[in-house]
Amino acid sequence: MSKILITGAGGGLGTSLRKSVASWADSVRLSDVTEITDCAPNEEFVACPLGDKDAVQALVDGVDGIVHLGGMSIEDTFETILDSNLRGTYHIFEAARKAGKPRVMFASSNHAIGFHTRDTELNGDSPFRPDSLYGLSKCYGELLARYYYDKFGVESVSVRIGSCFPEPVDRRMLATWLSPTDFDSMIQAIFSAPRTGAAMIYGVSDNLETWWNNDHARFLGWKPRDSSDRFREKVYAKPYDLKPDDLAVVHQGGGFAAAGHFED
Ligand code: NAI
Ligand code: 15L
């Protein structure tokens, strides 16, 4: 795989993923709205607002794979989600269609299924239950991925990322945590697989507690190596005042499911 584009490269995940991608790709095109100034010799930076269709087309031209992380990463106004996530992800798939069909990794989210209760084990066929406008935008992104494969053959993997941070910081994250190292190896597997079709997988480490069955993701040859369990004592030592029947505890999406509707 020679040239990989990472959108949202200046964000939390992009910043941690960059080093790993630069180690196996020939070259990496980093993109965001604010400039990245510390490019390695095989990295280049291209500023690009995802809401600008022509700019996204120029960004995608000439790449062999796209890691699409860019966009609003939490709940926000409809207008913000519309521009960054709905228009932005449409522009990425449309540009991919016109530019030789590079494979796309789409950063979906557990908030596409956040209204499922925690006692429900989900798998590759479980229905969407978005918990926010943000979660809805991730359902749309997954469906775009499906459409662009069925109609045009653009391959993709939509990853319903749980919580990808250096360590789990609360009890919910003991189930949803994806370690940055497991994320790195997952991305490499996605671009090494001979074929992906339009796959959806859960982005989660090998945690003792889990709500997601990833058996359908085996075809990628990716195995998470990390587990949140080594952080369990530390997390349980923190002050905690949620009750078992609080909406944030009942639902997989936690606080996103419990929050009121986000209005301007
Ligand atoms: P982040 O908020 O740190 O990074 C997102 C990046 O996208 C930012 O650098 C931002 O400048 C850029 N961006 C936002 N709107 C843009 C626009 N209109 N045009 C161009 N760039 C724009 O988010 P993070 O944590 O790095 O997440 C990356 C992706 O993974 C996001 O799509 C997020 O929804 C998804 N995700 C992350 C999870 C996590 O645990 N970190 C969990 C589930 C999904
Ligand atoms: C997400 O989708 C967000 O991007 C991230 O900031 C976390 O809130 C994560 O989900 C989570 O559910 O922990």
From TrEMBL:
GO terms for molecular function: oxidoreductase activity. PANTHER family: 4-EPIMERASE, PUTATIVE (AFU_ORTHOLOGUE AFUA_7G00360)-RELATED, NUCLEOSIDE-DIPHOSPHATE-SUGAR EPIMERASE. The keyword Oxidoreductase applies. This is NAD(P)-dependent oxidoreductase. Coiled coil: none annotated. Keywords: NAD, Oxidoreductase. Pfam families: Epimerase. The keyword Metal-binding does not apply. Residues 4-165 form the NAD-dependent epimerase/dehydratase domain. Belongs to the NAD(P)-dependent epimerase/dehydratase family. It comes from Hwanghaeella grinnelliae. Signal peptide: none annotated.
